[in-house]
Amino acid sequence: MTLSALLSRPRARLKQNRQILGSVAALVGGNMSASVLGAVGGLLVARFLGPEVTGRFRIYTIPLTYITFLHLGTFDGLWRQIPFFTARQMPEKAESLASAAGAWNVLVSGLVSAAFLSLALAALVRGDTFGVAGWLSQVICCWAVFFGGYLSATYRTIHQFVALAKIQFTQALLNFSLVFLVPFLGFFGLCIRAAVPSFVGVWLFHAKRPLKIPLRFDRKALGEVVRVGLPFSLWGSLYTSVWAATESALMLALGGVKGLGLFAVASVIREGMNVLPQSVYHVMTPRVVEAYAREGSVRKANARSLLVTAGMVGMMVVLVIICSYLLGLLVPLAIPKYVEGIPLMRASLWFSVLQAAALPFNTLFATGRSWLYGRGVIVGIIVFPLSAYLLAPALGGMLAVVFGSLCGRTARTLVAYAELAVLNHREVP
């Protein structure tokens, strides 16, 4: 066989996937830039403020993190159903579902913001200026969580992913610019830095929305979205927002406001490291769903993820080792008030490896069978606190929470791979 013949297949595959690669490059490039700005901004905040102040602000973010489930799975439902019905040439069906989901999230945003506004007014009556500013920031942030989350779930095509990356970069740039208010305004600067980019992000998501449709409260369409999305949302919320809120609550209980502030910087580093695998996951998921909708094959849908996963995991392990070394050098120089948090930061780096290993799980999502997705989450939820409890005597409370969380996520990952192996085995070749 000639060299030209050997190279023809890789060339054909590269040509076929050029749009996907371009989408990944655009989204990863935008998100990586946003991540760098976010990381630098977070480090500057840590430079200007001590962990006690950042910890005080984080207290006000915990309730909203716990109640994100109120979207009732509409994000997850649209995340699956839009590409599913697009692949089946039924765009009008996708639009009716999106319209009903949008109406629900506007309603939830209004109710939650009213609750936070009531808390801000109660703080005003007590003369608690920190409470007023903290709760008012959450009034705006809740619109980004619910309505902004709904809008971002409707971005599905190549060009829409590029637009999404641009909006996220704009938010990150604004967030970074507002860092320079923090030395002068302290806690109140943190509130402004959270609220303003959230407001601008929602406005841009709405202005650039791919589905310019009227929002209509259709109980039947909403019920269909919730029926598909709620089971996945239940597991997804437990694994993301509820899990993260529990980490923060445990840090507050074990380390006080200062401990929560130390963990805040570790969380910024963790989120930055997760950007690359998350971006790849977001771009690949609609393709995997469409492939499953057309072919009905778990094996073929899963094949799209496995090779990418192997390379991504290897890359993240190398990055974690390098960053772990650099943290010991840079933290004492850049943010000396947070030196106590270096062990938390180093442990948090390893979450990105598990995030990369989770790329094939979009196949479980594509099947529409939420229980396959949820069994691993249940195991992880059990392993997390149990591991933290057992590790606490040796590591100390706060570090045990991070390592317990890592153990829980590892357990969830192993169970999910077992589910994929069973599905592949049962499928007729």
Task: Walk me through the structure.
The chain is an all-alpha fold. It is globular. The chain starts with a helix and ends with a helix. It contains 17 helices and no strands. Helix 12 packs antiparallel against helix 13. The longest helix is centred in the middle third of the chain and has 55 residues. It is a multi-pass membrane protein. This is O-antigen/teichoic acid export membrane protein. Keywords: Cell membrane, Membrane, Transmembrane, Transmembrane helix. Its main location: membrane.
Fraction of residues in helix: over 70%
Average pLDDT, all residues: 81
Please tell me how large the radius of gyration is.
22 Å
The tally of helices reads 17
Give the quaternary arrangement of the chains: single chain
Order of helices and strands: HHHHHHHHHHHHHHHHH
Helix/strand class:
mainly alpha
Q: What is the approximate shape?
A: globular
How large is the share of residues in beta strands?
under 5%
Sequence stretches where pLDDT stays below 50 over 5 or more residues: none
N- to C-terminal separation?
28 Å
Q: How is the biggest beta sheet arranged? A: none
According to DSSP, the number of beta strands is 0
